[in-house]
Automatic annotation (TrEMBL):
Stated name of the protein: Citrate synthase
Cited PROSITE patterns: CITRATE_SYNTHASE
InterPro entries tied to this protein: Citrate_synth-like_lrg_a-sub, Citrate_synth-like_sm_a-sub, Citrate_synthase, Citrate_synthase_AS, Citrate_synthase_bac-typ, Citrate_synthase_sf, Citrate_synthase_typ-I
Pfam families: Citrate_synt
Keyword Acyltransferase included in the entry's annotation: yes
UniProt pathway annotation: Carbohydrate metabolism; tricarboxylic acid cycle; isocitrate from oxaloacetate: step 1/2
Length: 429
């Protein structure tokens, strides 16, 4: 799988080192630079690790230039159209699509583990009423380690898979509990007669005072969003889970660290930023003004939810979710000036030469924010929705790493502080 090595020569010393070329199944060739410090005395400098592969993985492939996203080799377009989130979860964890018996057993396992320990409700009650849901979620998920620590043998593949299934099953229950605590509503328990997304929506919005009927369109849109957000290769939160996992930490601590990383507005908070932007624009009549501001390099205003750091051509998930977003709005008959504003902004941006030439198309964050708002999910919960879906990717990577242990993550640094100096007593400073 390797090509002829690349020779790196230090002209100052005349020393050279061979850098093996590693090729994966797809994607750019990669230089193995491990020998550079020993042979040449240099470390490499790559802020953000944007040009460095930290691991090898068989889970997700992305080609940003060509707008390609595949889970275990399957194009995201096919999975979104023909699959379900539970089937995709099985695929990510196990590497292959399940047959009917395997799917039934996996779905049964996920359904069985939806309940959380009742003492977690006491833990949840300790949060302030207006605590951010992501703060609650990271705390509660981390606390799961205290419930299962004596029954998790990290060396046992079956025990690792059980922990992965527990996390996928319990995450919607925890997320709904965070929302209901914020709303001051009584606890809601999972109805295992329902499917994964239907069960989650029921836990979110059902109240003792009246019946709640889950919209099929809403459930399918949520399922679709979960598929699209399930994994995205070595992003910041997944890399965080892997880094923590390299220490041998239990999976609940690893996933809690991923939740913390996802919370950042530069990562999981992007769809929340879309709604904030729409509120800033305020009215359809102001779109032209803000379009011009977005084109002005000297203006700090940016159109959030347009373009993507990875997808330089188009986000393959956006075309899929766009149709679902419009279906949800039509089915629910939502009448919201902000939704009208979003639709109008979408149409203008798709036709404006400035955005077309720069390929600044609406991305998955733009449409997911619209769907969440249409479903009545508050902005503070948007990143929580993301975390429910991404948990599957996190545990898939954790399982992969645990089966093939790697050295503990230990990045280097370029030190820019003071050189050696002598201590001076406080009276002489």
């Amino acid at each position: 799988m390797s090509d002829k090595p690349v020779i790196l020569t230090d002209e100052a010393s005349g020393k050279s080192v061979e850098l093996p070329v590693i090729r994966g199944a797809e994607g750019e060739p990669t230089l193995a630079i491990k020998g550079v410090p020993k042979e040449l005395g240099y470390f490499t400098y790559d802020p953000g690790f944007t040009a460095t592969a930290s691991c090898s993985s068989a889970i997700t492939f992305i080609d940003g230039g060509n707008g390609i996203l595949r889970y275990r080799g399957y194009p995201i377009e096919q999975l979104a159209k023909q699959s379900s989130f539970i089937e995709v979860a099985y695929l990510l964890l196990n590497g292959e699509l399940p047959n009917r018996a395997e799917f039934t057993e996996f779905r049964k396992d996920i359904t069985y583990h939806t309940m959380v320990h009742e003492k977690l409700n006491n833990f949840m009650a300790g949060f302030h009423y207006d605590a951010h849901p992501m703060a609650m979620m990271s705390g509660v998920v981390g606390s799961l380690a205290s419930f299962y620590h004596d029954r998790l043998d990290m060396r046992d593949p079956e025990q690792r898979m059980l922990a992965a299934k527990r996390l996928i099953a319990k995450m919607p229950t925890i997320a709904a509990a965070c929302y209901r605590h914020h709303m001051g509503w009584p606890s809601s328990y999972p109805q295992n007669r329902l499917g994964y997304t239907e069960r989650f929506l029921d836990m979110m919005f059902s109240v003792p005072a009246e019946d709640y009927q889950v919209s099929e369109v809403a459930a399918r849109a949520m399922d679709l969003l979960f598929i699209l957000h399930a994994d995205h290769e070595q992003n910041a939160s997944t890399s965080t889970v892997r880094l923590v996992g390299s220490t041998g930490a239990n999976p609940y601590a690893c996933v809690a660290s991923g939740i913390a990383a996802l919370w950042g507005p530069a990562h999981g908070g992007a769809n929340e930023a879309v709604l904030t932007m729409l509120e800033q624009i305020g009215d359809v009549s102001q779109i032209g003004k803000y379009i011009n501001k977005a084109k002005d390099k000297n203006d700090p205003f940016r159109l959030m939810g347009f373009g993507h750091r990875v997808y330089k051509n188009f986000d393959p998930r956006a075309a899929i979710i766009r149709e679902a977003a419009h279906a949800v709005l039509d089915d629910l008959g939502v009448s919201d000036p902000l939704m009208d504003l979003a639709r109008e902004l979408e149409q203008i941006a798709l036709k404006d030469d400035y955005f077309v030439e720069r390929k600044l198309y609406p991305n998955v964050d733009f449409y997911s924010g619209i769907i969440y708002k249409a479903l009545g999910i508050p902005t503070s919960m948007f990143t929580v929705m993301f975390a429910i879906a991404r948990t599957t990717g996190w545990v898939a990577h954790w399982l992969e790493q645990s089966a093939n242990p790697t050295p503990i993550g230990r990045p280097r640094q370029v030190y820019t502080g003071a050189t050696e100096r002598n201590y001076v007593g406080i009276d002489n400073r």
